[in-house]
Design a protein that fits this description.
Length: about 475
């Protein structure tokens, strides 16, 4: 039995949820059959969210658990990473406050990239903890079934030894040239094969062989599996695979289709996190990732899980959703609809890579400074203290996790903003720092001076000419 396993986990699901009935209604003139799929809602990213920002939120929350051991590596799994040739994992690590001397890697190529990264971390011989985070924000053609099925989200899992909430019992994998879908380089949308073929020749043949091999090697019977996590957008796949394996029907974990949709690479890990919410000591969790083959992982909950509480459970992330019926907003935020924003939007959003490098601790890690003479904390760090004028070097002070509240704000309808109005104002940190910031995810009738805020890592600007995202920190209401 392995001495490695899961020490903590956290999920992130965008708060925006699109009513599927609104999508179906928009396409009723051409695709009336979509009405049958128009039940529930699906999560979608705001204009300033992507796989990196979602991952930062999940990793930061996962790190809030009271564990003393340090993180020695971070793996980021996604099929929708913003950068093809600029390591995404290093951005996530820096924004999450991890040390600069850790190893980092991007993992991609299929929807089982998350489970593959998890296996690599669990099988690693490193003595420090590993962080595995998976996230996806997949695009879908308007009026396609995928537009109904896809969601967005991220899940982070901390792997290590000691103080485990779930012990790793083993894994099995298989590669296969079976393609249920694919997306070539430079293409925006996945191409999907016929569902019945994928179910019968893919899931029902590839997955059972891998799972049976894992169970045999682990000395665990199918009847001893308490939670079975298998993500799929095809209805009825998980129960059918469970039946073939003789896994109890009640062990099949909810795939969250009606409440947030399928989050791609993140979804097997998200279902694992959902199982961990209710798992009792000794119960076993089987997780499967499918894509060009399959991965299967088996865990056993430890006694520590009885007292463990994640700071961001899947259930809490599902519950925080705000339902939207503006289909055009979904199209605009996902890049499917280019609105005419007028001359206000005509500006060059080029990022100075030189300045980004020189100030990366402030821009990416949100590090302010404290005066050694009068103790005033400020952001950004200036050459002299804003309070006493001392020119002594300021002491670095992280602000990303500091409590704050609204000091002043305005809702600006005149300046260009992809989700008007632009809320901006002074944020007062409890440690004394005060800075002008953009405020997002605002509910107007609940927003006022004194409201508690937390910091989130988001896209500041999108450079459409050079296809570069400039990231920075914003403030959002707590909750």
């Amino acid at each position: 039995m392995s001495d490695r396993g899961i020490k903590s986990y956290a999920a992130y699901i965008p708060r925006l949820r699109m009513d599927r009935a609104a999508i179906a209604a928009a396409h009723a003139w051409a695709m009336p059959s979509l009405k049958s799929a128009g039940k529930g809602e699906r999560a979608f990213c705001s204009w300033d969210e992507d796989s990196i920002t979602m991952s930062v939120d999940a990793v930061r929350t996962c790190l809030q658990s009271p564990l003393a051991s340090s993180i020695g590596s971070l793996s980021f799994a996604s099929t929708t990473a913003p950068f093809a040739d600029l390591q995404n994992a290093s951005v996530i690590a820096a924004a999450s406050g991890l040390r600069a001397d850790i190893s980092s890697s991007d993992v991609s190529g299929s929807l089982r990239a998350g489970t593959s990264a998890l296996i690599q971390a669990l099988e690693s011989a490193q003595t420090t903890d590993s962080m595995v985070v998976a996230a996806d924000n997949r695009r879908a053609k308007p009026a396609s079934l995928q537009e109904m099925q896809y969601g967005a989200g991220s899940t982070a899992v901390r792997i290590g030894t000691g103080d485990l909430i779930a012990r790793y019992l083993g894994s099995a994998s298989a590669i296969s040239q079976f393609a249920d879908h694919f997306r070539s380089n430079g293409q925006l949308y996945d191409y999907h094969w016929e569902e019945r073929w994928v179910r019968d020749e893919g899931y029902l043949k590839i997955v059972p062989e891998v799972v049976e091999r894992l169970l045999k090697n682990s000395g665990v019977s199918a009847a001893q599996v308490d939670y079975f996590c298998l993500a799929s957008t095809i209805s009825g796949v998980a129960p059918a695979v469970a039946k073939k394996l003789k896994i109890r029907p009640e062990a099949v974990v909810d795939k969250l289709a009606s409440r947030c949709g399928d989050s791609g690479t993140a979804h097997p890990l998200m279902m694992l996190a959902l199982a961990l919410e209710t798992a009792k000591p000794g119960q076993r969790i089987l997780v499967v990732g499918f894509g060009a083959g399959a991965d299967a992982l088996l865990f056993e909950a430890t006694d520590a899980i009885a007292s463990y509480r994640s700071a961001a459970t899947v259930s809490s992330q599902v519950a925080r959703g705000v339902t939207d019926k503006s289909y055009n907003k979904l199209l605009s935020f996902s890049g499917e609809l280019a609105l005419d924003w007028g001359m206000r939007a005509e500006f060059d959003a080029k990022t100075s890579l030189t300045q980004l490098y020189r100030s990366s601790d402030q821009i990416i890690s949100f590090i302010g400074g404290q005066c050694t003479a009068c103790s005033a904390i400020q952001f950004p760090r200036m050459s002299a203290c804003v309070r006493c004028g001392s020119d002594a070097l300021l002491t670095p002070i992280p602000l990303a996790d500091e409590a704050a509240k609204v000091a002043t704000f305005t809702a600006d309808w005149l300046q260009y903003y992809p989700a008007p109005p632009l809320y901006v104002g002074l944020v007062q940190f409890d440690n004394g720092a005060r800075t002008l910031m953009e405020m997002v995810d605002v509910v107007p009738e609940q927003f006022d001076v004194g409201l508690a805020l937390r910091m989130v890592f988001r896209i500041k600007e999108r450079d459409g000419l050079r296809h570069h995202h400039r990231y920075f920190w914003k403030a959002t209401p707590v909750g």
